């Protein structure tokens, strides 16, 4: 959504001024981290819909735990260069 808004604004500015503007979206030096949650154990009695619901709940839990809202480019850049001690 954000990217679409930025590009649509850049397009309108270009149509008005005919000055080519390139919006800055992505490509910033930020860390990409992968978090692995608790395993969802196999149960032959669980339907596909129930498994999908369990998976959705587990993913939402990981997002709430690890994603900082609202996001900040400045904070992301600081995290990129700041060494953080591992939490145990």
Structure write-up:
With about 90 residues, the chain is mainly α. It has a domain at about 25-80. The protein contains three helices and no strands. It has helices at about 1-15, 50-65, 75-80. The radius of gyration is 20 Å and the shape is flat.
Features:
3 helices; single chain; mainly alpha
Secondary structure blueprint with pairings:
Elements: H1 2-17, H2 48-66, H3 73-81
Q: Count of helices?
A: 3
How far apart, in Å, are the first and last alpha carbons?
A: 36 Å
Q: Largest sheet, described in full? A: none
How large a portion of the residues is in β-strands, by DSSP E? under 5%
Question: What best-fitting shape do the alpha-carbon axes yield?
Answer: flat
Q: From N to C, what is the helix and strand string?
A: HHH
Helix-strand makeup class: mainly alpha
Mean pLDDT rating: 78
Percent helix: 40-55%
Quaternary structure classification = single chain
Gyration radius over CA: 20 Å
Catalogue the unreliable spans: none
Count the beta strands. 0
């Amino acid at each position: 959504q954000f990217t679409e808004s930025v590009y649509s604004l850049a397009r309108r500015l270009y149509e008005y001024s005919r000055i080519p503007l390139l919006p800055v979206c992505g490509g910033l030096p930020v860390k990409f981290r992968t978090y692995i949650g608790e395993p969802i154990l196999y149960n032959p009695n669980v339907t596909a819909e129930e498994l999908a619901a369990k998976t959705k709940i587990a993913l939402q839990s990981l997002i709430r735990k690890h994603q900082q809202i609202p996001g900040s480019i400045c904070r992301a850049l600081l995290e990129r260069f700041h060494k953080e001690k591992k939490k145990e």
